[in-house]
Amino acid sequence: MAVPTGNGAERQYVRTVTTGWRFTLPSQIREARGWDEGTVLRARIAGESVILCDARGQADEITCYLGSGGKVVIPAEVREKVGWSLGERVAIRNGPQGVVLTLCCRRDRCRSCGNLHSVTEVIDNLFLCSECWNRYVEMTAAKRRTA
Ligand SMILES: [Zn+2]
């Protein structure tokens, strides 16, 4: 199948992972790929990204289905491996090897527990949520007392 080249190919869409681990595949990408409701997709993990492509009868990889309105449920195996959480924003790009899904705000997750709420950059490139940060501060304070 021909993959569109030029400006359209690199266009990026952002969707949020909602309850039930669903996100909506933009209609522009569905149309470009010729995917419709009921299309079986293959999910492949490539580093921190997930690549969706046509299953074409290959059952050796993780599959998911395209639902009505372009809804896709992220398979459990995939979200466990990539460590995504609900409410996260996913950048969606139609690439030559498939539809590439990458987290938009990876840096803003707590490095320790993966929380997305009240996360701050406590030191350069280290993002922690207030809970983990407080725990860390208490721990180092306790260490100092016993030392
Ligand atoms: Zn945390």
How would you describe this structure to a colleague?
The chain is α+β, with helices and mostly antiparallel strands. The protein has two domains: about 5-105, Chemotaxis protein chec, CATH 3.40.1550; about 110-145, no CATH class. The chain contains three helices and ten strands, in the order E-E-H-E-E-E-E-H-E-E-E-E-H. Strands 1-7-8-4-3-5 form a six-stranded antiparallel beta sheet. The protein has a two-stranded antiparallel ribbon with strand order 2-6. A two-stranded antiparallel ribbon has the order 9-10. Strand 7 and strand 8 (about 100-105) form a beta hairpin. The termini are far apart. About 20% of the residues are buried. The model is unreliable at about 1-10 (pLDDT under 50). Zinc ion binds near residues 110, 113, 128 and 131.
